[in-house]
Amino acid sequence: MQLAVLALLIAAFFVRLPQVSGLSMEPRIRSGEYLLINTFAYRFGAPRRGDIVAFRHESDARAVFIKRVIGLPGDRVRIDRGQVYLNGAKLEEPYVGHSNDRSYAEVTVPPLAVYVLGDNRAQSEDSRTFGPVGDNQLIGRAFAAIWPPRMLDGN
User: Fold this and answer.
1) Among all residues, which ones are annotated catalytic?
2) CATH for 2-148?
3) For FRET with 117, which of 70, 73, 141, 148 sits at 20 to 30 Å CA-CA?
4) How far apart are CA 50 and CA 57, in angstroms?
5) pLDDT tier, 145 (very low <50, low <70, confident <90, very high otherwise)
């Protein structure tokens, strides 16, 4: 009984379970999947490049967005014909499922923010559209999918 109460407390305060809606993170994360979000992850540490994060954005305050962290504070991010350049160097992205050939001007990620992109670049509303995401908008880090059950390693 005590173990069940402890599990419920942990789930209530440290984990969220949103359902993914949309194609922006395919093929790694599919629409309809439920993800476990560690809401405690960034209370004592900063996001890392490659983390899959959940956040809210003023473009739709009710929705939970799921994207991959590409740029950290101070990083310069540029996209040239679909290829991401981070601080002038081509970024290797084995997790990208569907690219596109669009270009975007270089952006310097401000303090207390991250630059996020979906893995399915052709179907993603992300920092290319709405800019960097403030740390205060982050809900947490996705670490597992419930169905099909598997760990999300960031790649």
Assistant:
1) 24, 67
2) 2.10.109.10
3) 148
4) 19
5) confident
